[in-house]
């Protein structure tokens, strides 16, 4: 798989967690996958119909691939909506400033533990069943349990018990995501389809599916999340219902509908597996408490060994640190910084919940647009012609991007320096928007380069599976630590959050990181 999608995978929901036992990086960050948008010949439907035999082992191969693909598209649209609104939703669910940090840490913790046994479960349980179970479980969590418990907590003033229940549900959700990652299109889903249904998916078709999958995810932020936020705002003004009720209700309804669309394609479009080869293979596998515990202990050992190997390769460890921080910092901006900026903004101080949600969705969509546009450009620009699937950038280019991204994020506090001007609000908001767009655009190249270097070197190591396990765990841990650290930083000193603190601390933290990286790389330059 190519490098671009590791930046954009629906991690943020399922983001950095799915580095797995494969030669490619998996998904889980808006920061979730590694596919590049390459040109593919042929029309949309002809790619399916023209590249596959219609029948094999008595099943319609084209129908299977289409059903899986369409189900995944609905799923990735759901991920984009989730990422766009989760910061505001969690703030309403927990009524606590640290609610997001705690729930994110709980989610990541479950993601790590689940990833230790997810591949074993995915080998034993067929892909059709696993897709249905994980989709249904997440539907129940987000569209049934959370709104029901939230309504009860508001009716009977039980906010603290609901907060505990919500964290527990996020742990369960994190485990479900770790399972679904193993069968998602941006990870190993197509390979499992090929193996379990005994069909051949050509590389051209696989690339076509990856291209469309990535584009749907990117554009869903603009063409799904933004209109949805506008609908929520309109409903608030046209009805007498509470803002929180409408926000949660619309989100849960959309989550439910997109989940049901995915389920419909999986249930009715993917038949029960009849491949004799896979059935014989599955019968030899054992899924028991003992096998799960053995797999868990084995993964712990692999992570320990992977850590030791990485310590012996300091140049790779540095790239891992850079990539992990870049990914975690951008995730924190989506999940923490932008929502807190919306709640404490000086531009529209009397925004209700629906207005805050629209404010967040617009800024997140704009930031995502910067990543997507520049990601597509540089991925095609710097592709190496040697067919080793390695993307190289000159050290000077990386340093320039770090300087440009530092300058871009410095515009955040600068945007507040025009408070006394007649058109302060709109000039300031323009600077804020430009700052986020440019920051996410210029941080794309370093992430692509670090990801590619890691993937190339790890894939060619004899113990690559141990390294991939460690890398996935490490990135997920850093993601939790960064968002938790920023949460504490924003309240220092005095325990009060202000617009100035949010913008200044966000800028200073990244600029310090960029300067440290530049100094290290100038003093100790490293090759592959």
From TrEMBL:
Membrane-spanning intervals of the chain: 105-122, 128-150, 162-179, 212-236, 245-268, 320-343, 355-377, 398-418, 424-446, 467-490, 502-523
Keywords: Membrane, Transmembrane, Transmembrane helix
Superkingdom to which the source organism belongs: Eukaryota
Coiled coil residues, start to end: none
Name of the protein in question: Uncharacterized protein
